[in-house]
């Protein structure tokens, strides 16, 4: 940055000199980049790479399987290969696994779709210039600021048999018992909590759109609906896709909201993380690691598909975006200097 | 070039051998630490690991010990409120063989799991005065006939009933059998003020409480979930009778929202005056009887032993035990501290301050205590006849299976026979050995 800014000031002679050393300079820069990045990569390997590999290694072992003659648990790990994985897909546990898998997928689909629609609406409202806009923005963000476990408690109170939800609906729905209403309760609480997140990211995207584009559209006679689908949505798409991707990754590993709102071990809301947690809390760490590894692969697959199918241009757009300001900056700096 | 790795190897071997022998030495002192009183050695500061102390009284009790034992101070380590989180943290501490925890406050159902995993030091039976304690509570601290924990508080379910309504309906005393209870309900419901009241409530939500309700129903009918031989025993007519009681009670006599009510939800329901009979823990007595307006039934209820199919029923035994971590230092101090906290004096003070049920039998007959806690005689009787929940090393899996199948039976997703045979086959591998 300093070189680009000082280069115009130094004049053409100085600017010509580095051009001659071009090749070695590129190599040097690369080496420097690698050197500067290596601590980051090392930290990433330590905090992400190692746990993933350690988790996978753990999933190949089993321990504490039997009792000896005195009633003590036999100590030591036993290598079981892929035994923990095959066990997941067999018998009773296969039912539990596919139930949790479909619950996880169901929550992901429903909540992300609802959140996106509501979040975009929230962003459009927050974008409008009106009196008390700051207040509206702040209040929309409140649900996102509440810790998930607390909002779980809050909603449990609302959804209890004599709670606010039934009072408003004038129904007697057993939301917090194990059944379909429990699924709905989780979706409602989750959407309430996380729509502001999408709203916030989309709002940031909206504010990047230049006002004059809308002026031009208005001059050309485009109505609000046309403006939304032809201008707002395409231009806000990169920000929206990032927000949706984040939400998907987040909801795929949902644990605390259903656990607090409905409880653990409830068929209708059990997610993959909850099964892994149950296994771990019953000391079957190998099996828990196997569930976690399967979930990890599922999340990685979804993220890959999402980026490939919808967001292939997430990175492309992002690159253009970062390139543009860089091209602009020296000119601005020059203008400021003069 | 060749020598270096070899030298390196020898060094590594030596280091390994050293560390292994060191480890082995620790293990001898730790895991087999129950061979006799001699192995509970070491004096000095210790820690007391317990769930969140809601009464705020525990510290005062420890202050008493600390002033008497300035060189063997006890520090409280408070774990979360949720029993599962407490168990989780204690297990984490044990699997890392940390000496941070000395005396553990264990739920009665954890004893088998903790003892079987060698996380507890075996206690010398002869050196602890167990003769003064209720026999049912002592059993919960044992695993395979060896003592691993000393009972400090107890708990058992009782039948709360609306004395005022029963009297008005001309009923002389609390019901002893289910049939009597349903008949009483029919009579009480004829009163105008009890027209909309629900008859009975015991917890049937899919939590640990479901296991407790199942144990009470099945044991009252003379069956058991896991038989005396350690094998599941759900293919018996008694087990079926017990489950059918729960199904019938839920269908015909409980509030519609029963499956969503937890212990506190049940308490609120009873306190709002909408219930005639309720199975509940002793802790509700003081709260439901308080005259600050939070309870509509203050002074209007009494307690009795739970009814059964043909006579008095069987309550489930709850409570907490104190044990010494196998990896703790200063085990001798820990044992003394357990003796102090489970002694009659400390238990009396604790009962007065927190109304937690004691394990020392004499306190239940103490006129001063009975005056303050009128339910004590009933509770003593309930504890004496109480049965523990299934004793299993894999208790977490056992209770999850019981909860699932019983919930399906009670909510009508499965007929009783089906649920029981499914549970039998689920429990078989969990209790094998």
TrEMBL record, chain A:
Cell location: Cell membrane
GO biological process: transmembrane transport
Ranges for domain ABC transmembrane type-1: 101-306
Compositional bias (Low complexity): 7-18
Bilayer-crossing regions: 32-53, 106-126, 138-158, 184-206, 227-249, 288-311
Keywords: Cell membrane, Membrane, Sugar transport, Transmembrane, Transmembrane helix, Transport
Source superkingdom: Bacteria
First-listed, main subcellular location of the protein, grouped into a coarse class: membrane
InterPro entries named among the record's database cross-references: MetI-like, MetI-like_sf
GO cellular component, as recorded: plasma membrane
Membrane topology note: Multi-pass membrane protein
Chain intervals for the UniProt region annotation (Disordered): 1-25
Matches recorded under PROSITE patterns: ABC_TM1
PANTHER family found in the cross-reference section: BLR7065 PROTEIN (PTHR43005), SPERMIDINE_PUTRESCINE TRANSPORT SYSTEM PERMEASE PROTEIN (PTHR43005:SF1)
Family membership: Belongs to the binding-protein-dependent transport system permease family.
Protein name: Multiple sugar transport system permease protein
Organism, scientific name: Actinomadura luteofluorescens
Lineage: Bacteria, Bacillati, Actinomycetota, Actinomycetes, Streptosporangiales
Automatic annotation (TrEMBL), chain B:
PANTHER family xrefs: MALTOSE-BINDING PERIPLASMIC PROTEIN (PTHR30061), MALTOSE_MALTODEXTRIN-BINDING PERIPLASMIC PROTEIN (PTHR30061:SF50)
GO cellular component, as recorded: ATP-binding cassette (ABC) transporter complex, substrate-binding subunit-containing
Gene Ontology biological process terms in this record: maltodextrin transmembrane transport; maltose transport
Keywords: Signal, Sugar transport, Transport
Membrane-crossing residue ranges in chain numbering: none
GO molecular function, a single term: maltose binding
Signal peptide feature range: 1-24
Assigned protein family: Belongs to the bacterial solute-binding protein 1 family.
Name of the protein in its database record: Multiple sugar transport system substrate-binding protein
CDD domains per record: PBP2_TMBP (cd14750)
Species of provenance: Actinomadura luteofluorescens
């Amino acid at each position: 940055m300093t070189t680009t800014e000082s280069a115009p000031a130094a004049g053409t002679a100085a600017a010509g000199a580095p051009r001659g050393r071009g090749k070695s300079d590129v190599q040097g820069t690369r080496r420097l980049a690698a050197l500067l990045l290596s601590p980051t990569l090392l930290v990433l390997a330590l905090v992400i790479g190692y746990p993933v590999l350690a988790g996978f290694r753990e999933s190949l072992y089993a321990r504490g399987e039997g009792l000896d003659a005195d009633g003590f648990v036999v100590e030591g790990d036993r290598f079981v290969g892929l035994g923990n994985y095959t066990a997941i897909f067999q018998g009773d546990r296969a039912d539990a696994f596919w139930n949790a898998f479909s619950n996880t997928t169901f929550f992901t689909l429903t909540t992300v779709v609802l959140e996106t629609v509501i979040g975009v609406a929230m962003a459009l409202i927050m974008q409008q210039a009106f009196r008390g806009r700051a207040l509206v923005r702040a209040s929309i963000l409140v649900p996102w600021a509440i810790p998930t476990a607390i909002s779980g408690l809050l909603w449990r109170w609302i959804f209890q048999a004599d709670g606010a939800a039934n009072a408003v609906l004038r129904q007697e729905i057993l939301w917090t018992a194990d059944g379909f209403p429990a699924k709905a309760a989780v979706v409602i609480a989750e959407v309430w909590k996380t729509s502001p997140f999408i709203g916030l990211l989309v709002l940031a995207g909206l504010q990047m759109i230049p006002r004059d584009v809308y002026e031009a559209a208005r001059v050309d006679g485009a109505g609000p609906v046309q403006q939304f689908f032809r201008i707002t949505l395409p231009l806000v798409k990169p920000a929206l896709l990032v927000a949706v991707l984040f939400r998907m990754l987040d909801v795929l590993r949902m644990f605390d909201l259903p656990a607090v709102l409905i409880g653990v071990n409830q068929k209708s809301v059990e997610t993959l993380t909850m099964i892994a947690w149950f296994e771990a809390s019953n000391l079957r760490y190998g099996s828990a690691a196997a569930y976690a590894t399967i979930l990890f692969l599922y999340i990685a697959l979804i993220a890959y598909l999402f980026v490939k199918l919808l967001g292939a241009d997430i990175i492309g757009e992002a690159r253009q975006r970062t390139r543009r300001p860089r091209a602009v900056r020296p000119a601005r700096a020059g203008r400021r200097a003069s | 070039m060749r020598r270096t790795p070899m030298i390196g190897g020898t060094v590594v071997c030596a280091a390994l051998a050293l560390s292994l022998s060191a480890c082995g030495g620790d293990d001898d002192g730790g895991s087999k630490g129950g061979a006799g009183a001699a192995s509970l050695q070491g004096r000095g500061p210790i820690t007391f690991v317990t769930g969140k102390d809601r009464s705020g009284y525990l510290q005062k009790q420890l202050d008493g010990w600390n002033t008497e034992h300035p060189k063997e101070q006890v520090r409280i380590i408070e774990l979360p409120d949720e029993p599962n989180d407490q168990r989780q943290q204690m297990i984490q501490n044990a699997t890392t063989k940390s000496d941070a925890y000395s005396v553990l406050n264990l739920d009665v159902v954890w004893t088998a799991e903790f003892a079987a995993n060698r996380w507890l030091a075996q206690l010398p039976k002869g050196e602890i005065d167990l003769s003064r304690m209720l026999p049912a509570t002592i059993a919960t601290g044992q695993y395979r006939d060896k003592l691993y924990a000393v009972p400090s508080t107890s708990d058992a379910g009782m039948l709360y009933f609306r004395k005022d309504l029963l009297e008005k309906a001309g009923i002389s005393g609390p019901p002893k059998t289910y049939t009597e209870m349903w008949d009483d309900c029919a009579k009480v419901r004829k009163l105008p003020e009890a027209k909309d009241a629900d008859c009975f409530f015991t917890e049937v939500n899919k939590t640990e409480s479901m296991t407790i309700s199942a144990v009470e129903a099945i044991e009252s009918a003379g069956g058991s979930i896991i038989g005396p031989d350690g094998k599941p025993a759900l293919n018996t007519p008694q087990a079926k009778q017990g489950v059918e009681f729960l199904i019938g009670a839920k269908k015909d006599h409980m509030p519609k929202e029963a499956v969503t009510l937890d212990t506190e939800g049940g308490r609120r329901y009873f306190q709002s005056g909408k219930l005639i009979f309720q199975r509940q823990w002793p802790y509700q007595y003081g709260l439901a009887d308080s005259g600050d307006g939070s309870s509509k039934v203050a002074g209007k209820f009494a307690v009795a032993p739970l009814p059964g199919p043909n006579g008095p029923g069987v309550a489930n035994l709850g409570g907490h035990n104190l044990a010494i971590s196998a990896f703790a230092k200063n085990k001798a101090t820990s044992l003394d501290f357990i003796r102090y906290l489970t002694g009659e004096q400390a238990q009396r003070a604790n009962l007065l301050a927190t109304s937690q049920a004691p394990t020392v039998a004499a306190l239940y007959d103490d006129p001063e205590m009975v005056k303050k806690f009128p339910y004590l005689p009933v509770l003593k009787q309930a504890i004496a006849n109480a049965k523990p929940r299934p004793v299993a090393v894999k208790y977490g899996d056992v209770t999850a299976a019981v909860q699932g199948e019983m919930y399906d039976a009670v909510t009508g997703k499965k007929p009783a026979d089906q649920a029981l045979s499914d549970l039998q086959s689920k429990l078989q591998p969990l209790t094998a050995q």
